[in-house]
Amino acid sequence: MISCTEFIPAYSELFKYLEKKGGKAAVAKYWDRISQEGLDNLHAEVSQNGLRGCWNYWSHALNEEAADFTQTLDEEKGEFAITMHHCPSKGRLLEETHLEPYEDYCLHCPALYKGLIESYGLKYEMDLSGTDKAACAVIISDPKIKG
Amino acid sequence: MEKMVRKASDNKYLHKDFHVGLNFGIGYIAKLHGDTAVVDYLREYAGVFHKPLKDAVMEYGLAALEDYFRKLYETEEAAADITFERSEDELRIFIKKCPAITHIRKSGNEIAPMFIETTRTVNEEIVQGTPYAFELITFDIDTGKSEQRFYRREAAK
């Protein structure tokens, strides 16, 4: 058994394996498949609850992942935001001295979530400029409210 | 406005849906590249990730493996589902049910046929290049109940 606490290194190595088999396009294709078929809970939350569904989904996931984060939901403003102070996944990959993280590891997040979120009429924006320190930020907004 | 602020130390790191993610990945590779690709991938993963454990096996022998698996099941909150019998040349592991398979099924997903390799191939790779070998004696894909053994290679003769 690969423990769920050992999944992130397995995930990173899977991206490397797929890239070796078929280049970056093969990795992108895999992420696209996950986005379409592997995130049923997020699809259900966003389709039924919109921005509140994003809050529900990431509240569960980020707490179980023991992330160091701040998230806010402003329904009047039409905005849900995550500030990831220290991502447990990227952080783990950076801490393990015997592992070399997949070079585009952090790109899996927008690849998985942007298309999915925007298919429900919301807007997904991500700042990946701090990923060398396992930090990032996401803003999901509702254009119908935010304008 | 609602606000949630969490430190890493506020929660235990145990996101069981990652088991579902791994099962999805195993099924994806098998479908796209074939069963041997799953084995190749898991060998590459285990070869890299488990290097420190392999080093520990070289230094401490089967005790290092027992210690690793005991802690793994404690982390998964399934300590009662694993027992060990260890002699100088053999470590037998008895799994009542696998926490990964239990969670994947509970989530309403089918187990990828090649999911068994996350035990067999990974454990084989952990002891590759050491004086020990691995054998998956029994494995029930419905529950993950299994009997496994690591043994000293020359002791098998």
Would you kindly provide a written description of the structure presented here, covering whatever features stand out?
With 147 residues, chain A is α+β, with helices and mostly antiparallel strands. Helix content of chain A is 53%, strand content 18%. Chain A has six helices and four strands, in the order H-H-H-E-E-H-H-E-E-H. Chain A has a four-stranded antiparallel beta sheet with strand order 1-2-4-3. With 157 residues, chain B is an alpha+beta fold. Chain B has six helices and five strands. A four-stranded antiparallel beta sheet of chain B has the order 2-3-5-4, with helices on one face. In chain B, strand 2 and strand 3 form a beta hairpin. Chain B is globular. The interface between A and B is large, with 45 and 47 residues.
Structure at a glance:
The complex is a heterodimer of chains A (147) and B (157). Chain A is built from six helices and four strands, in the order H-H-H-E-E-H-H-E-E-H.
The average pLDDT score of chain A comes to: 95
The helix content of chain B is: 40-55%
Oligomer: heterodimer
Backbone shape of chain A? globular
> Would you report the number of β strands of chain B?
5
List the helices and strands and how they pair.
The complex is a heterodimer of chains A (147) and B (157).
Chain A: H1 7-37, H2 40-49, H3 51-64, E1 68-74, E2 79-86, H4 88-95, H5 108-118, E3 123-127, E4 136-141, H6 143-146
Antiparallel strand pairs in A: 1-2, 2-4, 3-4
Chain B: E1 2-6, H1 17-33, H2 35-49, H3 51-60, H4 62-75, E2 82-86, E3 90-95, H5 99-106, H6 117-126, E4 132-139, E5 146-152
Antiparallel strand pairs in B: 2-3, 3-5, 4-5
Helix pairs in contact in B: 1-2, 1-5, 2-6, 3-4
